[in-house]
Amino acid sequence: MASSTIYEATCSAPVNIAVIKYWGKRDTSLILPTNDSLSVTLDQDHLRSVTTARADPSFSSPPERLWLNGVEEEIKSQGRMRTCIDEMRKLRKGLEDKDDKLPKLSTYGLRICSENNFPTAAGLASSASGFAALIYTLASLYELQPAVSTSHLSRIARQGSGSACRSLFGGFVAWQGGETTDGSDSLAVEVAPQEHWSELQALICVVSDAKKGTPSTAGMQRTVATSPLLQHRIREVVPARMKDISQAIKARDFNRFAEITMADSNNFHATCLDTSPPIFYMNDVSRAIVQLVEEVNRASEEAGKGKIVAYTYDAGPNAVLYAPKENVSLVLGLIRHYFPNADFDDTFNLLSSGANASHRGANQPASPLPTQEQGLPAGFNSAVIPVHEAGAVRRLIHTQVGDGPRLLARGGADDEVGLLNAEGEPKRLQRSKRA
Amino acid sequence: MASSTIYEATCSAPVNIAVIKYWGKRDTSLILPTNDSLSVTLDQDHLRSVTTARADPSFSSPPERLWLNGVEEEIKSQGRMRTCIDEMRKLRKGLEDKDDKLPKLSTYGLRICSENNFPTAAGLASSASGFAALIYTLASLYELQPAVSTSHLSRIARQGSGSACRSLFGGFVAWQGGETTDGSDSLAVEVAPQEHWSELQALICVVSDAKKGTPSTAGMQRTVATSPLLQHRIREVVPARMKDISQAIKARDFNRFAEITMADSNNFHATCLDTSPPIFYMNDVSRAIVQLVEEVNRASEEAGKGKIVAYTYDAGPNAVLYAPKENVSLVLGLIRHYFPNADFDDTFNLLSSGANASHRGANQPASPLPTQEQGLPAGFNSAVIPVHEAGAVRRLIHTQVGDGPRLLARGGADDEVGLLNAEGEPKRLQRSKRA
């Protein structure tokens, strides 16, 4: 049973979606990337991983146990999880050695329980938010901050899952690839905080896909090994774009931000196609969304206005659309017209209650095309893509730029927030199956 | 009416399909490419353009008339057709100036009639074979050869349609991009004749596509203007591949030929995707064919054998599959299994008469998967792609490496072959409409 004092922390961490893509490792065990990358942190109120970690001397054999979405996972030696836990213990040990009034948590066993609030069905990678939540929770449990900087923590999260290092900050985050062989300079830094450009919102279009694509871990190394174009991307394309998009973000220049974001998404998928054998992540629905976005932007610019929206695609068919708050209703209207019957998380209550009532994929006719009164540019060619079959886009998630990891609770298993019960077991088991 | 002696020639020219792709012009009026390219000439017995040209002093006002597939076309001043005709007249004039016994054909009016034996529905570009047939026919009418070399003629065909220069030779043909600003060194040369590797065959898979993609003339210049990756392709990727594939062809090394052909097709489409806005030519069916080819090659190599087949895609969704003669039945069986009900031109009578009877797109069930006895590699994963809906591949055309342009007939409107009647008008009008 647990000792009198309960050493426990529960934290949440956000998802991030890159606008300058990470693709390729120069060191696969330390997870050192072949190029810098830059991402937007999304709001934890909508998408998050929550982790509870408890340290207790009574926890032993094994000294650590881990549950992900209610399913216990083995912590493999030599594994990434192992590395992260050991590194965090080491940092705690360092503090204990300096101050012997500190309880020797580094010697205690650990119970770790983590859950995502988004089902895998959302088609979103959970490793970034998951490892960020793990590292931030252990840092809170071990009270490492401020002694240990967040960028230092990001170095450890990086070794769990590369892009996890970017989820340790809110707002706009750069992962500096670094040059050293030990990875000491491969870490995340804040480019701009959430508040700097809080009007930036995101609409995630979850695209139905028959078969699972190439896993990114395997795919990116195949690209490194076989794509002649990737080397040019690494040497020439990305360094220039990192500078340019950082400036665009600092200037809140959506037009430039959109231009670079779309170009880099296409550049990344071009290197996947240039891989042997080629890797395909975007499908015909992904491409139709690209064509829709390009057309509404073209019409808007032709009307002397700026771009309306930007697309970006990770290692899958889903589109993440970034747009300033004032454009999202139009973008949503366009997506719902051309891609009927998507389940829609109307988190910002954009739809009239009437529409709201029927927005959960019920088999209603396609929503009407937005009108010019609703902001559709006059020159928009409505025949740019056909109205797709119901469910071609399965689900829409509307969110916005968000903050970094949050401490939700300390201590007591009595609190509502913690995921572990008094015995140090998950309050909810098998949740993943029910999701 | 026509003068006593009839000056007329009728010639045919082949289609060519590039294995190192031409994409981008350094001079759009002279049609000078940004990189070298290399193609395989396909057999005129299956796919060809036929042109009849007649010169007669009675032809005037206008001095030239032109019919394409039975439809009269205006010859625009400053147009590409205009350039080609003027250049050919100039060459004839040169001979007449040297030898005044020659009739002054360069001063006569012209009637030109051209037809393709493949409907546009085949989804094959006809400009290459069309301009090659035009140039070769005028060269025959004007009796320019041997005084004028075929490579010289290819320089003129190039100004009609870039890839047309490659259709002036049979077998394996390189278009040397050249460096001069006047284009004098931008011409086609034979890498190896048809007889050198006559076992190489092609299966063209015509893929249904909802909407027409970006026209290549506009698309390639958008890529030149916006794709950072294209510059790397031009400077680094293509020059090395031109050398390598020429060696592979000389050595009849299908494995290497296939490897480079597939890599360059993917590299070309990668630069299209890297264009802003991105250009998409391949669709989900195109990609499924890629995955099928990669899987059967993987399984064959795993079994210690070489590659079975290679794919290449031009500016559209159609796949052109190259394979040694002995592999084509297997490839055909695979395509017909996963893509049922394609119309099939069984030019080599590969199918049993029974299958033959029902091969014209009748709605029969998918053909069975080829067996290991039929050459399917043991390790082949039959779940690599799903069996597609009937007609996803609309049509299959089986052909082989072929020879260069042919002179079919001279003189007399009485001959069966010529396309013009005694009055110098097309024997068949509006054929394109009936095709």
Automatic annotation (TrEMBL), chains A, B:
It comes from the Eukaryota. InterPro entries: GHMP_kinase_C_sf (IPR036554), Mev_decarb (IPR005935), Mev_diP_decarb (IPR029765), MVD-like_N (IPR053859), Mvd1_C (IPR041431), Ribosomal_Su5_D2-typ_SF (IPR020568), Ribsml_uS5_D2-typ_fold_subgr (IPR014721). Residues 364-374 have a biased composition (Polar residues). Pathway: Isoprenoid biosynthesis; isopentenyl diphosphate biosynthesis via mevalonate pathway; isopentenyl diphosphate from (R)-mevalonate: step 3/3. Keywords: ATP-binding, Lipid biosynthesis, Lipid metabolism, Lyase, Nucleotide-binding, Steroid biosynthesis, Steroid metabolism, Sterol biosynthesis, Sterol metabolism. Belongs to the diphosphomevalonate decarboxylase family. This is Diphosphomevalonate decarboxylase. It comes from Pseudomicrostroma glucosiphilum.
